[in-house]
Model the fold of this input.
Amino acid sequence: MSVYIDPAVATSLRGFEMPEKLGFGSVMAPVMFRAVCQDGCWSSGELVPYAPLSLDPAAKVLHYAQSCFEGMKAYRTPERGISLFRPERNAARLAHSAERLCMPPVPEALFMEGVRTVTAYCANLVPATSGESLYLRPFLIGTQADLTVSASTSYEFYVIASPSEAYHAGNMRVWVEREDSRAAVGGTGDAKVGGNYAASLLSIARLKKRGYDQSLWLNPGNRQTVDELSGMNFFTVMGGELHTPALNGSILEGVTRDSVIDLARDLGFTVHERAIDIDELLRQVADGTCEEAFACGTAAIISSISVFGDGGESYAVAKAPGLVAERLRQALLDIQEGRGEDRFGWMHPIEPISVD
Ligand SMILES: *Cc1c(COP(=O)(O)O)cnc(C)c1O
Done:
């Protein structure tokens, strides 16, 4: 597969100035990768200047939400240059999300070509400060202009990028969401789709007014066990052992979750994947049995949870930031930022391409 490089890309890249303050996901790299799929046939990809999309107002994505995405990062490592973290996992997950929404999966080779090309041309935009990175956002949308309720016959796949700081700093206050659900039984909870996020926004707006940062979502089937946060998976530490909700169809299988489990076991921790009852958990937070709680995801890495709010009550976690969370965060960042040995083969090096 060969990627067409639009000659205007060089001008876009040369004209780009990195702002002093990055934030998360608000500064956009000046180029993007694009491929189209018509009746099941994928075009080859192209790298073009970053620009608004042109969509027909009747495009299926705008009405029936045929839209899924990924979030992943390119890191700058002192010895090994630029690397992506486990990109094949994101390729596989985007394919899974696409299939759930009746969309054609982006072939793994095309996905890899997309993230590799954007990262290679944006190598100068990968920040060097620890915790900062080039955040990549691959996404797939249904573009056919037709209001009948059926799967689109045409799709567009993009990879955009954003030089970013880490998403969350400090401890998080989470709110136990007893009313709304972000996903449904048999729904799209285990797919990374925009609709899940749309369903979470009202809850987040409500809890912000009460001084909280994130919703803690319960399982939509039993409304009693913990699933996850809106964009992060959930862990607790009890008796020095890790506990995380077992995958159940409504939890998104995080690449960070998977990596934390592997890393923790490698460091000698016992990890339990099980159903976590919310009322039992709140009792254990209150009596100190639950020593730590944290959330993890690509954007936030690992962030400690300091308080659980539920109805009129709040429950403070004994240790926030917790030592186990801090140790895992450091061990993960050491691998991602090239200070620690890549003993799981997670890092995928990218050869920079210069336009000068
Ligand atoms: C993306 C996401 C996560 C985190 O997944 P990572 O692969 O670790 O970034 C967790 N939960 C939800 C709902 C998500 O959308």
About this structure: The mean pLDDT is 96. The radius of gyration is 21 Å. Residues 194-209 form the longest helix (16 residues). DSSP finds eight helices and 19 strands in the chain.
